[in-house]
# Entry
Amino acid sequence: MYLRYSYRIYPTERQCQVLARTFGCVRVVYNDALALRKQAWKADRSNIPTGTLAKAVITDAKKTVARSWLGSVSVDALQSPLRDLDTAYRNYFDSKTGKRAARPVGLPVFKSRKDNRQSLRLSRNGFRLRSNGKLHLAKIGDVRVKWSRPLPSGPSSVTVVLDPSGRYRASFVVDVEPQHLPALDTEIGVDLGLTTYAVLTDGTVIDNPRFLRKAERRLKAAQKALSRKAKGSKNRAKARRKVARAHAKVADTRMDWLHKQTTRIIRETQAVYLEDLNVHGLARTRLGKSVHDAGWSTFRRLLEEKATRYGRHLGVIGRYEPTSQVCSTCGTLDGPKPLDVRLWTCGACGTSHDRDLNAARNILAAGRADRLNACGGPVSPGVAIPRRARPVETGTHRSVGGTGRKPRAAGAAGIPVLQREEDVKPAAPTAAWRGP
# Structure
């Protein structure tokens, strides 16, 4: 599996000037290539091959007076924006045709020189790791690196990034083998929230740190100072970097906290089950700032990456499962409840529930049921799963009978509460339905 290892680098003043020139050349090559592709598509709906495009915007452009300064930077750095442009167009067309399962993406847009984040990428031919610990970049020189940890293997590429706060980073791509941890017999369900960040089925409660909320006073003062500076002045540039550093501190603190929490969960449990939250929709409500501050998507992404690397299982149940409405003891659907109701008693069995803990238990039960009943798995519970189902197999089946009704949540024992056979009405086959 491929991983990224990021390190701080400290270029000299002359190297910063060369890097700034290289950033500009990379941006110009990308914009020129994008303009040519747009013209060709508008003229006759044709696509220019990458080799022809590279010859036009790099090789031939160096011979002109307007683009002669492209020869002062590494040609390896000028090749990367062409690959990025191909990837952007591929993602767009895959999104339009349905091959890309992620959120829809739009057409590539031109890059501005006013962007606060600049980057360039070099392949194996464009960089080298020196024996003295420095990083040699083509036509830039040896750059000092702060090696916070050793690289597990030789890198295949490096990306030099200048963030809005003025920090330089070198991000290496390395190929590592998964390091599976010893198998455990513990499984947990995790219910994410805003009052408490997460509640686990074992009773562990993770408090919400609210890093952005705690830094709002400092951010407000820095932003107010920025708004008072004249546009285009050096003082405004200094104030902008001060605001960027304040935001970078919040982001770095949150990422460090998320790494520690996800690492602890992966080390102590064999299987983790989450709920598929609609983070994009929740971020557009009045709770948007708190949702962004929580970083639920990053929390889930880190769990997925670490579960794959360390041989753990991560299951995600459907977002329409009524985890907060079902009693985890008897499986009775008690109905929706307002958010201010944190404790409730089941009307069928009389069990008192904590709202978040009960939801975490239902998530665990539903995740276990989905894992045991996944495509390719055994029908009877307790039998070893012969092979792991592909991600596209789970959760793609149509609802029973085509009525659109959602299945009920699973009980605490991990066995789903199924509908009665006489309640299921067979639906007439339609020509549009071709199966999963």
In short: The chain has ten helices and 14 strands.
